[in-house]
Amino acid sequence: MLNSIYEDTKQSMEKSIEALKRDYGTLRTGKVNPSILDNITVDYYGTQTPLAQVATILAADATTINISPWEKHLVGSIEQAIQAANIGVNPNNNGESVQLFFPPMTVEQRQESAKGAKAMTDNAKVAIRNIRKSANDKIKKLLKDKEITEDESKKAQDEIQKITDSFVAKADETFKTKEAEILKV
């Protein structure tokens, strides 16, 4: 029963790390990444649809993203959706596709992006700590229901703390890697 709590805790914390990595994908680094458009939706026959489901998105080079809609009438809608998303560039519509030309990042923009990554990391750490609290609450309930002894409860909480520490360290390591990528010119 304690082993299942440990496993659930590890799985939940691993999901927090995966979510952190997905969040990092929305940050701009020195090279443009099509995932910066992941949160943009387009009006597709009255339904808000993710941009990636109505168009091909390619990074042509380090500063250009090319968006080719599968249906030509969507070009205007895509252009409006990108302007509304306020991602820091204006879309260029050539009638058949939309291009995004990102200027090279300034030092200030890189530092701002690194701050955003730090905030995302802090949020992931909070989520990890909340998972720890939930696991400890389950252990305390087992103790209260007399299913485990006081010593087993203490050992279990120590084990949960070790798991938490390892995942917090993993989040910090992920941040250091991302920060180095962002600040690299």
Layout of strands and helices, then pairs:
Blueprint: H1 2-24, E1 41-44, E2 47-50, E3 55-61, E4 64-69, H2 75-85, E5 91-93, E6 98-101, H3 107-144, H4 150-183
Antiparallel strand pairs: 1-2, 3-4, 4-6, 5-6
Helix pairs in contact: 1-3, 1-4, 3-4
Question: Unreliable segments (pLDDT under 50, ≥5 consecutive)?
Answer: none
Shape: elongated
Strands of the widest sheet, in order across it, are 3-4-6-5
Order of helices and strands: HEEEEHEEHH
Number of helices: 4
CATH topology of the largest domain: Topoisomerase I, Chain A, domain 4
For the record, the CATH architecture of the largest domain stands as Orthogonal Bundle
Largest sheet descriptor: 4 strands, antiparallel
Annotated CATH homologous superfamily of the largest domain? Ribosome-recycling factor
- Multimeric organization: single chain
Query: Could you report the average pLDDT, rounded to the nearest whole number?
Result: 90
CATH class of the largest domain: Mainly Alpha
Rg estimate, integer Å: 22 Å
Count of distinct structural domains: 2
Number of strands: 6
